[in-house]
């Protein structure tokens, strides 16, 4: 059965299908659709989860073996299959076999890039459509985008007028990941409740010379001097220290999570996909992974926790100097001595 991303939540409240095939090239909607299915499955008693990354050379017999096996403790399972590309002939045959004999004690979630119209006529696609739920997500535009932004704001405890939502839509240009980040920034700046147009403009205006995302980007790239200049610019423009810290901490955790996956033997592309690194950021993230080690990332995370306490007044210190320490720890080469100030 084909459903839109908006319809998925209603279906999950009624019953769990045996298979969910989620596809599309809009990463946030795709990730959140998979999250929604996993949450519904856990709430329905599916306590264990097996993840399969179908990279080149993946042994597709593993999927059917998982379907045919039963948990030793009778526990219901989530089978989470990640496809880096549309299914080829081997993958398609494996999906047909699974659809013909799905696991009785499991729900299969397949995440895939966009499936073209011609491919939707294939045998494997039709087989899944017959027994499960098929959701293809699309980039949002116009009224759809405005409705999505309104729902997202409300979910974070924020209320905005139609005009304010249009300002936000113009800023993010259809990039839902950027929209989610901007909304989180608004919540950090103003807390929950009603926000007016002026507050939105102040938070997301394109006229600002410096941006917290520029800070995170230059820091990950190892551009220490430039990162320090951006940090000084953010301070001069009156950006809240908590917002700058949020952007830095988000990327520190991102790198740490990817490193943990790589240490477990996860292929690089699969690790990037699991952590929702979109294509434009991959070169920066890969550069950071080559430059940093896990001890350095842990040190940066500890410094960010210290900066958080300073910003909240729980520890003595100057917030921007604490942020500077975080930037330098993440951007500078190990053991380097850097003289810098935020003014």
UniProtKB/TrEMBL annotation:
Cross-referenced SUPFAM superfamilies: P-loop containing nucleoside triphosphate hydrolases, post-AAA+ oligomerization domain-like
Segments forming domain DNA polymerase III subunit delta C-terminal: 217-323
Keyword Nucleotidyltransferase: yes
EC number(s) reported in the record: 2.7.7.7
Gene Ontology BP, a term: DNA-templated DNA replication
Keywords assigned: DNA replication, DNA-directed DNA polymerase, Nucleotidyltransferase, Transferase
Domain DNA polymerase III delta N-terminal as annotated: residue spans: 20-135
Reaction catalyzed: DNA(n) + a 2'-deoxyribonucleoside 5'-triphosphate = DNA(n+1) + diphosphate
GO molecular function, one term: DNA-directed DNA polymerase activity
Top-level taxonomic group: Bacteria
Primary enzyme class: transferase
Record's GO cellular component terms: DNA polymerase III complex
Family: Belongs to the DNA polymerase HolA subunit family.
Protein name (record): DNA polymerase III subunit delta
Organism: Methylocaldum marinum
Classification lineage: Bacteria, Pseudomonadati, Pseudomonadota, Gammaproteobacteria, Methylococcales
